[in-house]
Amino acid sequence: MNCVGGLVMDEAEFDKFAEEYRELSEQVLGISGEDAQFFAEYKIRDTAGLVRKFNLPDNLRVLDFGAGIGTSTPWLRQYLPNCELDCVDVSRKSLEIAEYRFPDMARYTHFDGATLPWPENSFDLVFSACVFHHIPPAERPRLLAELRRVLKPGGLFVSFEHNPKNFLTVRAVNACRFDENAILLSGQEFLSKLNAAELTNPHLRYRIFFPGFLRALRPLEKFMTWLPLGAQYYVWSVDDLFGQVVWCRRCGGQYFRL
Ligand SMILES: C[S@@+](CC[C@H](N)C(=O)[O-])C[C@H]1O[C@@H](n2cnc3c(N)ncnc32)[C@H](O)[C@@H]1O
Hints:
- The chain has 258 residues and is an alpha/beta fold.
- 29% of the residues lie in helices and 22% in strands.
- The strands form three sheets. The chain has a seven-stranded mixed sheet, with helices on both faces. Strands 1-2 form a two-stranded antiparallel sheet.
- β6, α5 and β7 (151-162) form a beta-alpha-beta unit.
- S-adenosylmethionine is lined by residues 14, 65-68, 71-72, 89-91, 94, 111, 113, 129-131, 134-135, 143.
């Protein structure tokens, strides 16, 4: 147990599930008709799209916050091949497994749940996948401020979460052993937390509307990202470096000043 800001956090919660994490993920995500790799890949594909959209450097420094057993690691290497990747987690056992699986793909660092072991302005991209619902609500603002601290000016923050408004997602989470203490957060709730943490101009996109047997309809999903019914969603924010980003009120898009 670790006491952070007066709250007791079970540092080892995911140590208990590290060995069987892959198997449990496959079981629970299998309900959708897709496997865990499908879910891992789409997150990084979307994130890499934002990296390109905002012209982040090719050799960008990336932090995978709550990286677990390294589910996203090979996809980050594939979609952002020249990045420098740091994976951080409170579960030592998960990190050991990640390092065993992908020894040369990233640096793996344990985190005490309080202060990230990097100076401010260290990363161009801070990414997380399905981590915040495992963080007690009272702890979330402090950790977001900590992620904001290590993000460079002009950097990109992207975080994927399960959507509590999707009943199949809720059913899957309720059936999953490693989610027994999870407290899901809605996209709107996450957006307001980003604002409070000064992660500027946050955006929200819903994802994964069609189960595997309807995958032929997935090209339609790009028109549905506003609809709060997707199985998952992500929030993202790109720091407005010296007022260089122009926001289009009509289409919601962001453009750099020339
Ligand atoms: C559901 S797993 C997701 C792992 C990985 N991101 C993935 O997509 O497979 C949640 C992870 O968040 C980590 N975690 C929970 N609380 C955390 C915290 N306060 N700081 C960093 N990681 C945390 C857990 O140890 C676990 O590895």
